[in-house]
Every structure is written in C-alpha cells, then in structure tokens.
Design a protein that fits this description.
This protein is an alpha/beta fold and 274 residues long. The chain has a single domain, classed as Alpha-Beta Barrel (TIM Barrel), CATH 3.20.20.70. Helix content is 45%, strand content 15%. It contains twelve helices and eight strands. Strands 1-2-3-4-5-6-7-8 form an eight-stranded parallel β-barrel, surrounded by five helices. The chain starts with 8 loop residues before the first strand and ends in a 7-residue tail after the last helix. The chain binds 1,3-dihydroxyacetonephosphate (13P). The site of 1,3-dihydroxyacetonephosphate has 14 residues, from strand 8.
Length: 274
C-alpha cells in the first residue's frame, strides 16, 4: 500500500510545562526562519503545530510562523462558569488559538481526565471552532496483557461518540496515538507496532463515523519521536504525523522531524489530487 496523499502530514510540538515567554518567542522566531527557508510542501502537504503552555499562548499566536497553527494543551468543556483554575474554549478562541490537545495521557494519569469529560471537550472544541487533537494510548501493563487494541478502541468510542459525523472532518479533528510506555522513556514503538495500532484506529474511526471520513482524519504517532526515527515511522501508510515532546523543545531537533516529513512528501508524488 502506498502512503495516502489525501491527508497532510502533521508535525506537532507539545511543550508540556516548559518554556518561559522569552524562550517561547525565541523558539517561534527560529522556527519561522526554518520554515521560510523550506517553503516547499509546508502548509499544504506538511502542517506544523505548536502547543505551548497557557502562559505563552497569546504570544505564540502573535509570533506564529506563517503556515503553522497554535494549539493549547487542554481546556474545560464549558464556555464559562465557576471552575477555578480552568480555561474555556471561548477564552482560547478569543486569543486566536487554532486547536486543542485533548486527553493527553499525562492529563489522564495525573489529573483524572476521563473519557466522559473528553467526549464533552471534543464536542465543545468543535463547536467553538477549535481543532481537536484527541490523544489515545495504552499503558505498558495493558500492552503486556494483550489489551492494547481494546483500550484504544474504547478510548476512541467514548471520546468521539457524541461528535456529529459532519464535524468529524469539518472540525479538523486529528488523533494522536501515544503509547504511554513510549512517552519520555526513549523507547519508541517500532514502526510495525505503531502502524498496526494506527490501522486499528482507522478501522475504529470507520466504525464510529464511516470509511470515507476515517480516510480523511490524520492519525499522529507520539512517544520518543526524534529526527533519527521520524522518517521510518512517517513512511507507514497510516502514520500521518508526529506529536513530539522532548525533541520539540529545541528548533534544531524539531525541524529535523519536519525535515523528515518534507523529504517524505518530496518522494511521494501528489498526483495533483490532494
Ligand atoms: P516525548 O516525545 O518526550 O516522548 O513525549 C511525547 C508526548 O507525550 C507528546 O505529547
């Protein structure tokens, strides 16, 4: 099977709880320079996303390189209310933020984020014009007990069950498969393991929505992605991008991953049909 030319490759930086505003600005200016120097394919076949912490979001929107998008790392599902410490979709839109990462395993693990609230967050993001990026993935224990596929299918089904079929594509929904055992551990899923789970995810998306929609939703891989392994991961038919933590903190390594995606699209004819 050849790689789809329907879906762009999305390379996303999740900064987690890193970078003061000055550091964020420096990174974005440097990234803009890299993107200016590599215009071929950027914005059309390869999309770049940066997800800074809340404190740098406004600045990131102002300094966003052309053709990149700024996502927040979380949000509350209500548009306002008595929820101390939370940030609403309306507030993010007010800042000019493009999208939101939802259900990251660190939020599930440390902050009790569960699939029920996520279902509401996905719908709220789509309603407010924020592109939802839903994270799913199994723990090491779940993988070792043979439950990885079931866990991921259930996470998708619960979190996406309330999303209107039309909104599944019009919202710019993407999925990030991040096996918990591969996050920040230096241990990457092999391209075979990742491709297999991505195919399972696409199959589940087809049963939640339909085959045509499943073909249009980008499924990113996350977990110790680096410039050295990005190319072999992205070359797989169902791996449509990377959600990057550690290697996205420096432009030198993040741009190496963008470069791997650009090399790949340069080698894949667009058939004029993208
Ligand atoms: P690392 O790239 O540091 O493993 O983090 C992955 C991740 O959690 C991105 O959201």
């Amino acid at each position: 099977m050849t790689k789809s030319t329907v879906r762009p490759i999305v390379i996303a930086a999740n900064w987690k709880m890193h970078k003061l505003r000055g550091e964020a600005m420096e990174f974005l200016d440097e990234l803009a320079t890299y993107m200016d120097e590599h215009p071929q394919g950027l914005g059309s076949r390869v999309e770049v996303v940066v997800a800074p912490p809340f404190t740098s979001l406004e600045l990131a929107v102002e300094h966003c390189p052309p053709h990149a998008r700024i996502y927040s790392q979380n949000m509350h599902q209500d548009d306002h209310g008595a929820f101390t410490g939370e940030v609403s979709p309306a507030m993010l839109r007010d800042l000019g933020v493009d999208g939101v990462v939802l259900g990251h395993s660190e939020r599930r693990q440390y902050f009790n984020e569960h699939d029920g609230a996520l279902a509401e967050k996905v719908v709220a993001a789509a309603e407010f014009g924020l592109r939802p990026m839903l994270c799913v993935g199994e723990t090491l224990e779940e993988r070792q007990s043979g439950a990885a596929e079931d866990v991921v299918r259930r996470q998708l089904e619960t979190a996406l069950g309330d999303l209107d079929v039309i909104k599944a594509t019009s919202s710019g929904l993407s999925i990030a498969y991040e096996p918990v055992w591969a996050i920040g551990t230096g241990e990457t899923a092999t391209p075979e393991i990742a491709q297999h789970l991505h195919a399972v995810i696409r199959d589940e998306l087809a049963s939640i929505f339909n085959v045509e929609i499943a073909e249009r939703i980008s499924v990113l891989y996350g977990g110790s992605v680096k410039p050295g392994n990005a190319g072999e991961l992205l070359a797989n038919v169902d791996i449509d991008g990377a959600l990057v933590g550690g290697a996205a903190l420096e432009v030198a390594s993040f741009s190496g991953i963008i470069g791997a995606a650009l090399d790949l699209v340069a080698a894949t004819p667009s058939a004029g049909a993208r």
